[in-house]
Amino acid sequence: MPIIVDIDVMLAKRKMPVGTLADRVGITPANLAVLKNGRAKAVRFTTLEALCEVLGCQPGDLLRWEPGDADELTSTTADDSEMTTDSRDN
């Protein structure tokens, strides 16, 4: 996965337990674990904003891009080519 989630780094810098962050952000510890372990397919801007507010950081402190394998990028591009819309966007 070329997008790396560095929530653990910020938690360590702030000496904050995961459960405390989840409570302050307003998400479940399970959903925070999915996000911080890089298994999330998306993150809402409101969640990203809350994470930044609680941790006192910028989005770039939590997310970074690293180049991946050519095969990985090709399969990701093929998967992402079929756009879907959320009914809430209409």
Provide structural commentary.
The structure is a single chain. The chain is mainly α and 90 residues long. It contains six helices and two strands. The protein has helices at residues 7-14, 18-25, 29-36, 45-55, 59-62, 70-80, and strands at 3-5, 63-65. The N and C termini lie far apart (30 Å).
Mean model confidence by pLDDT: 84
- Find the count of extended strands (DSSP E, 2+ residues): 2
SSE order: EHHHHHEH
Structural class of the helix and strand makeup?
mainly alpha
Strand content: 5-15%
The low-confidence runs, each spanning 5 or more residues with pLDDT under 50, are 81-90
Helix content: 55-70%
Write the layout of secondary structure elements.
Layout: E1 3-5, H1 7-14, H2 18-25, H3 29-36, H4 45-55, H5 59-62, E2 63-65, H6 70-80
Antiparallel strand pairs: 1-2
